[in-house]
Design a protein that fits this description.
Layout: E1 13-14, H1 17-26, E2 30-36, H2 42-47, E3 51-58, H3 61-70, E4 79-83, H4 90-93, E5 98-103, H5 109-118, E6 122-130, H6 131-138, H7 146-152, E7 157-163, E8 168-169, E9 176-182, H8 191-201, H9 209-213, H10 219-229, H11 242-257
Parallel strand pairs: 2-3, 2-5, 3-4, 5-6
Antiparallel strand pairs: 1-8, 6-9, 7-9
Helix pairs in contact: 10-11
Length: 258
């Protein structure tokens, strides 16, 4: 039976063997790997050789039947297949330490990556996503943004390579990219609060940071913090490093408590 990609699930099946191999090679050996969206199971086959336990989350019931047939032997041992939306069952996904591998539909990519970043049981990820989203997570210097700074809390997010539309069936209208992050540090801050703070900082990138911060703090307090930290009032958010953002965040939060 030929399986057709379903548009409402954002499905595009990777058919390029060279790209499949490059993705597999970029994933470190791990005790447990979680794969979100195994699709037809082409990457799944390679992942089985890189771990002791592979858990696959697939939302499409038709694909589940295909995967059950293709991996009937493996499902009796090291592989587990779950028919569910990974975002809705994250607690089940994250019961033990794991490394994440995924070809993510564009409409859920950002949410899943942020979930993985926040998840203490996730040691890192290799995911394929829309290139524009990949560039945001991996941005540096003048291009940095709230997503790239959040990534920096945990490690270095690398853009490994692009994947052209013709590598898929059907071909999407955009170019994809594969990104990788291996966590090497644990943030020592209120993550949810810092995420919200960064959204305010980058709400209007062309405005100065001080003007963006007016949404969450009084001007006098902002200018006092800037003076204490040696920051110019005219500075824009992309000109600051992560360490200074964390200091400003702490100061703004302390001011709200007073």
């Amino acid at each position: 039976m030929q399986i057709k990609a379903k548009k409402h699930f954002g499905q595009n099946f990777l058919k390029n063997e060279s790209i499949k191999n490059k993705i597999i090679q970029s994933i470190p050996d791990s005790k447990k790997i979680v794969e979100i969206g195994p699709g037809l199971g082409d990457l799944t086959h390679g992942l089985l050789a890189k771990c002791e336990q592979l858990v696959c989350f697939e939302i499409d019931s038709d694909l589940i039947e295909h995967l059950k047939s293709r991996f009937s032997h493996e499902l009796e041992g090291k592989m587990q297949l779950i028919n569910a939306d990974a975002l809705k069952v994250w607690g089940e996904l994250s019961k033990q330490p794991y490394f994440l591998a995924a070809n993510l539909p564009y409409y859920v990519a950002t949410n899943i990556i942020l979930k993985a970043l926040r998840d203490k049981n996730c040691s890192g990820f290799v995911v394929m996503i829309q290139r524009e989203v990949a560039q945001k997570f991996c941005a540096k210097d003048a291009e940095q943004n709230s997503l790239s700074l959040l990534s920096c809390l945990y490690g270095e997010c690398e853009l490994l390579f692009d994947v052209e539309p013709e590598c898929f069936e059907p071909a999407p209208k955009v170019t994809s990219s594969v990104i990788k992050l291996v966590k090497n540090k644990e943030p020592d801050c209120d993550i949810a609060g810092f995420e919200s703070f960064l959204k305010s900082c980058f709400a209007a990138p062309r405005k100065t940071l001080a003007k963006n911060l007016l949404a969450i703090a009084q001007k006098e307090r902002i200018l006092r913090i800037f003076e204490q930290l040696g920051i110019k009032e005219s500075i824009r958010a992309h000109e600051l490093n992560l360490a200074l953002f964390l200091k400003i965040f702490d100061e703004v939060r302390d001011a709200k408590r007073q």
